[in-house]
TrEMBL record:
Record protein name field: Amine oxidase
Pfam family, one: Amino_oxidase
PANTHER family linked to this entry: AMINE OXIDASE (PTHR10742:SF342), FLAVIN MONOAMINE OXIDASE (PTHR10742)
Cofactor section: FAD
Length: 628
């Protein structure tokens, strides 16, 4: 790798590195992609290893059909227009800038709530009220004193959070004020404790406000967590991406270059030179073949708390929620049923004169959304049971409601199909939401790098639970890697490329021996195979790559493995242990095509048996990916 000169003269974008770095990034969510884009823009070489066959992580639009508006957001779906989210809006500008107008990301209005949305609590529909305008008296909530019984849930929450919010409101500088006035003072306490101790509420009043404004047990999170979350939810203007939020990570990946992304590469060991682990703690914990870090770091990785999240999208023959009285054009209905929230799509809302005129009989998708304990409850059910529960709940809410022709709404008859995502079963398990003590004890240590290993992900930002948080954590990682403070986020005024010239990257892949335990596991058949139809069983090395002759290269079929690290990460059965002396290592020179993610087991098996007759691997078995 040759020397290079600093080329960046853009203010705030100076680069103290004098050579292009080769950075491996584990995780193709927003944090990994943002890190990759920024480092590339600075002239560094990146390669993303994504464990699944899909880019975007928790930004995940499920498309039922390719037709317009026939999708639901299984992950992120809405962005508040606040200063904290500037990094998101800037990123959209950055991505859009070089694109043709018809390819650009189009932000549309997202309706958070309307006064027509329904409230279904304590067994019946409350048509006269919205969730935040409901008082304990209206719905017969037990054990509420005279002073509070006619106060709305919204006003009560404002009362509780108001004095805390004031301490961090502008002109105060958010981060120092948040640390000093909120974290230092209140981090060891739950928000429930704060409401009881400071606001003199009863537990029953806390339960009422939590039921109407959030979901079960959220108020047992730390005070700073509730403050942080309320900051962003307190605004009126919201936006979403027309055509689905997944458009953002997909376009980011295209900009990074699909040849720089390997799919189906669940990393299980880390032997990197310089690497960014842009994965949630639950996934990091499962990388067992890695260095042990300080006690505090290890505790932080174990402890940082994630809450489960659950969403189901249901596609119906009509957008019946827009036809009933009162109609819901966007926003969400609040229930205390297992589904908790019914979220109506903000995309595809008919324009006003149409809405009041003709009947809309086009199909549409709504989603049900549970958080925390309410999300956990879906876990033990089968997909069919989950759909039955969701339909039963929707039927209770829409019982007796009629469409414009006067027909009863029958959700069972109207359903076309459904899909859901139990985030507790994914590598992320949900979203970061901190318990008492975690901002103070774990947050800073969790985001510090360990030598040349860096950590990114939404949980490592003050604004966790947001896409913006993931991007902010990535920005910090880039600052740490290149040794520059206060980098400006990517935006439409970011220079397209500040490089060190076109340097080839040497990538070195070590393949684990085939583990019979995994036989029969599904092959990560990548949707990208059409772009790169390389069959390495016939064409080795793949076009554009060549073996690099070096000491570590086991491309010669030598099964002694003299210069190769012994495989210690994967359990093998006795038979294969006898034969397997060491894993083969194949060193390739770039521009490396993105071939690993699309190969099936047999193809890779052939490659490896060409090198040694003992090994067969599938890309999901690829335990170690190394950068030299
Ligand atoms: C249901 C839900 C609703 C949300 N709503 C919103 C919203 O409305 N607005 C908003 O701004 N944010 C929202 N969020 C939060 C937002 O989606 C996340 O904060 C953000 O996308 C997280 O990005 P990340 O890169 O930190 O993590 P992730 O998106 O989780 O990315 C991590 C990636 O790493 C991969 N990976 C894990 N382990 C390995 C391994 N060993 N090897 C290789 N790859 C691995 C994963 O497959 C994944 O692709 C929501 C999240 C959820 C789940």
């Amino acid at each position: 790798m040759g020397d290079a000169i600093v080329l960046d003269s853009h203010p705030g974008h100076s680069n103290t590195c004098n050579r292009p770095l080769k950075v491996g990034i584990v995780g193709g969510g927003i944090a990994g992609l943002y890190t990759a884009l920024y480092l590339q823009q600075k002239g560094h070489h990146v390669h993303i290893f994504e464990g699944t066959d899909r880019i975007g992580g928790r930004v995940h639009t499920h498309y039922f059909t390719p037709d317009r508006d026939q999708y639901y957001e299984a992950g992120a779906m809405r962005i508040p227009k606040t200063d904290f989210q500037d990094i998101f809006f800037d990123l959209v500008k950055y991505i859009n800038k070089p694109l043709l107008p018809e390819k650009r990301i189009n932000l549309i209005k997202y309706v958070l709530s309307t006064d027509k949305n329904l409230v279904f609590v304590n067994g019946s529909l409350r048509p006269e009220t919205t969730a935040s305008n409901t008082t304990p008296a209206m719905i017969g909530w037990p054990d509420i004193d005279e002073k509070h019984k006619d106060m709305t849930a919204g006003a009560l929450l404002k009362e509780a959070l108001g004095r805390l919010m004031k301490k961090i409101a502008p002109p105060a500088d958010f981060e120092p004020a948040f640390k000093k006035k909120i974290v230092d003072k209140w981090d060891n306490f739950t928000f429930r404790y704060y409401c009881i101790k400071k606001c003199r509420w009863t537990n029953s009043l806390v339960d009422f406000v939590e039921t109407m404004t959030s979901q079960t047990n959220q108020f047992n999170l730390s005070v700073p967590e509730l403050v942080m979350q309320s900051l962003d939810f307190g605004v009126k203007e919201w936006q979403t991406i027309d055509g689905g939020m997944s458009r953002l990570p997909e376009l980011m990946a295209q900009r990074v270059g699909l040849e720089n992304v390997t799919f189906g590469a669940r990393v299980t060991g880390a032997v990197f030179d310089r690497v960014v682990l842009a994965i949630p703690p639950a996934a990091l914990r499962m990388i067992v073949d890695r260095p042990r870090w300080s006690v505090k770091k290890e505790v932080a990785i174990r402890a940082l708390h994630f809450e489960p999240l659950y969403k189901m999208g249901l596609r119906f023959k009509t957008r019946f929620w827009e036809h009933v009285d009162p109609p819901s054009f966007g926003g969400q209905s609040t229930t205390d049923l297992p589904i908790r929230w019914i979220v109506y799509p903000s995309n595809g809302i008919p324009v006003e004169d149409e809405a009041h005129g003709q009947e809309h009989d086009q199909s549409g998708v709504l989603l049900v959304y549970s958080w925390m304990t309410d999300a956990t409850n879906w876990l033990p059910l089968t997909p069919l049971e989950r759909r039955n529960v969701a339909l039963n709940c929707l039927a209770q809410v829409y019982n007796g409601k009629k469409d414009r022709q006067g027909n009863n709404i029958n959700v069972y008859n109207l359903l076309i199909e459904s899909a859901d995502h139990v985030w507790s079963s994914s590598t992320a398990t949900g979203d970061a939401m901190f318990l008492p003590g975690q901002f103070k004890e774990h947050f800073e240590v969790a985001r510090e790098h360990e030598g040349r290993i860096y950590f990114a992900g939404e949980h490592l930002s003050f604004h966790h639970t947001w896409i913006a948080g993931a991007a902010l954590s990535a920005l910090k990682v880039v600052e740490d890697i290149i040794g520059v403070k206060d980098l400006r986020p990517l935006s439409d005024d970011t220079p397209t490329h500040v490089g060190f010239g076109d340097q080839p990257i040497d990538l070195s892949f070590k393949f684990q021996p085939y583990n019979p335990m995994y036989s029969g596991t599904q092959s990560p058949s990548s949707p990208f195979s059409e772009y790169m139809p390389v069959d390495v069983s016939r064409d080795w090395p793949p076009k554009g790559c060549k073996h690099l002759p070096d000491n570590n290269n086991r491309g010669d079929g030598d099964e002694k493995g003299d210069n190769i690290e012994k495989n210690d990460g994967v359990e093998q059965d006795k038979a294969s242990k006898k034969e397997a002396k060491a894993p083969p290592q194949v060193t390739l020179q770039t521009k490396l095509p993105n071939y690993l993610g699309m190969l099936d087991k047999s193809a890779l098996g052939v490659v490896c048996s060409k090198n040694t007759s003992y090994y067969a691997v599938g890309s999901w078995d690829m335990g170690r990916v190394g950068f030299r």
